[in-house]
Specification:
Length: 207
């Protein structure tokens, strides 16, 4: 267990595969939140995913390669090793118990932020961690609810979101998988070690 952690970030996801926008989000969180450590957690049994994910071993290996060069990042296996569905609220409670003196920061990308109100026990999460979201996601939600006089139509969770400044990066795991299946280069979207791992293990060659 690491000692002296006062500001602990948590970044989860399928990472199927991890890409450059994931790295940019991690770097933004570490710098803008002055994190002592950022835990990156590949999801285990993803209750919300319709598509079957790559095996946990592949996703864990790719995640380790993707974040290997980022200081203060620790790839955490707990969600992959956990039995049953993966819920972020359980991970936050575990980390709170392990680091009772640390302030927790939950780092979300745009897709995660949009779906936040569908998460298991999502109302409890703001009590456990400060929710930090790529700024573009917050702006998109605000724009979607602007222009209406009915304030109840606004997402009440927005007040809990802390914005992270992020460049506009039109990259997603879905796009990467599609490019691989279409025999297109993915190096502009992922690191070279991740691209090599995908090629060596023939991942995502069919959708």
């Amino acid at each position: 267990m690491s000692l002296g952690i006062q500001r602990l970030g948590v970044l989860g996801g399928a990472f199927d595969p991890p890409h450059l926008a994931h790295q940019a989000l991690a770097q933004a969180a570490i710098a803008q939140l002055s994190l002592d450590e950022l835990r990156v957690l590949p999801t285990g049994q993803a209750w919300h995913k319709i598509r079957t994910l790559s095996t946990a071993e592949h996703r864990l290996a790719m995640t380790r390669l993707a974040f290997a060069d980022l200081p203060k990042v620790v790839v955490d296996e707990r969600e992959i090793r956990r039995e049953g569905p993966t819920f972020t609220v359980h991970t936050l409670r575990e980390l709170h118990a392990e680091y009772p003196d640390a302030e927790l920061f939950l780092v979300l990308g745009e897709d995660q932020a949009r779906a936040f109100s569908t998460w298991h026990e999502f109302e409890a999460i703001p009590q456990l961690a400060i929710i930090c979201v790529a700024a573009r996601a917050i702006l998109t939600n605000e724009e979607a609810t602007s222009g209406t006089q009915n304030s109840s139509s606004s997402d009440p969770m927005l007040k809990h979101f802390h914005p992270l400044k992020m460049p506009n990066m039109p990259v997603s795991a879905t796009l990467i998988r599609a490019r691989i299946a279409d025999h297109q280069d993915i190096l502009p979207l992922v690191t070279e070690p991740v691209a090599r791992y995908i090629a060596n293990h023939h991942l995502f060659e069919t959708i």
